[in-house]
Amino acid sequence: MCHYADAGINCTVHLQSVDLYQFRSFPDGHFEFCPGVNVFFGPNASGKTNLLEAIHVLSNLRSFRSRNFRELIVWSKKNASVRGVIQDRGGNRKQLAVDIQPHGRIPLLNAKSCKQSKDFLQIMPSATFVPDDLSLVKGAPAFRRYFLDKSVFHFYPPYWALLTDYNRVLRQKNTLLRRLQQGHGRQGAEEACEVWNLQLQSLGTKIIVQRLLFLNSLKRQLAEVYARWLGDEETLDIQYKSGIDSDMKELQTIMNPLAGGNIDDLSAIVLEGYERALRRAMAREVRQGVCVVGPHRDDLDLRLRGRLLRAYGSQGQQRTAVLALIFAGVELYHERYAEYPLLLLDDVGSELDTQRHAKLFDYLQQGMQVFITSTHRLNLGEHELSFDLSTRKGPVQAGATDPF
């Protein structure tokens, strides 16, 4: 079994163990992990991805497979839970838990309900790759906004409050727009909309600026990751697509020399474009009964050799791009905090050729805690702990593992 000293791992958050109760295919189960690479292997339907999903839920308070919490609970049961013990950055042990009910979940820290999700989400950050999930490339814009917002939050925690306040004001404006659409409250409507617009402009500008600053850093890491061991000579780029009336090339020009530079100039240009876009959209918003301009409608474009990946990329190229995006975020997190998030990889080996496969496994030895699924043993080295899920009968115990 590997230990911190053996693995040469500087203390990041380490998930030491997980207990499952009525989660997916596990009536119950107990797993103890090493701080290096943990491999869940076995044939299809043996529970590999379910275990990975449970760790994801413990980190993110949501599944990467379904928004329906009922699906996470063993059939005919009323609730489920995922409980974990972590060692934090200071070497302290903490107990995390997510109690799952058909219509929601309750996060707990050290057996006490965690009142604000944002506090729980900062405890054990993670990055997850699932090969069948191409939503980051060709799914609805909401998937890419979630990826972006979650990422920005981990680099700028006040972002959570910005989003919360923005969504509150957005709901209030949409309520007014629906009334106007139905022919109610026409008198004074323009003044009322202006009140909400001023708040949306202020909050929305801050959100967009934080997104742009994050993406400016991510673009650099994405190019390096893709060129180093994923993309050969191809170039992968990510671009922010906004409905505000601002020139994105002008914004990019401002950000390029921005090594902690002039955010005020960037904010001023975004705000001016936001104001123009809202004025231009007023009649359309009244017709549709909904606000059509702002960060809640913005999107990301991934481009390979300058071509839109979701339109022109093969499925293999799209999967490789998602993998590169995940690892670019991991590297950016490490650059910022000198530690790694948990890395969750579902059957990633099947997506890579032999050369890239070897580069990936070298990368995983850098000192991060990794959870990876496979149909077979991977034999990644002395700092690997493998779990054979094909042998389980009822509860899965740590004794069913084979440490390397």
TrEMBL record:
Gene Ontology biological-process entries: DNA replication; DNA synthesis involved in DNA repair; double-strand break repair; SOS response
Residues noted as binding ATP in the record, renumbered to the chain: 42-49
GO molecular function: ATP binding; single-stranded DNA binding
GO cellular component, one term: cytoplasm
InterPro entries the UniProt entry points to: DNA-binding_RecF (IPR001238), DNA-binding_RecF_CS (IPR018078), P-loop_NTPase (IPR027417), RecF/RecN/SMC_N (IPR003395), RecF_2 (IPR042174)
Annotated compartments: Cytoplasm
Domain RecF/RecN/SMC N-terminal: start-end pairs: 15-377
Signal peptide: none
Gene3D superfamilies: P-loop containing nucleotide triphosphate hydrolases, RecF/RecN/SMC, N-terminal domain
Keywords: ATP-binding, Cytoplasm, DNA damage, DNA repair, DNA replication, DNA-binding, Nucleotide-binding, SOS response
Top-level lineage group: Bacteria
HAMAP family assigned: RecF
Function: The RecF protein is involved in DNA metabolism; it is required for DNA replication and normal SOS inducibility. RecF binds preferentially to single-stranded, linear DNA. It also seems to bind ATP.
Protein family: Belongs to the RecF family.
Entry protein name: DNA replication and repair protein RecF
Annotated gene: recF
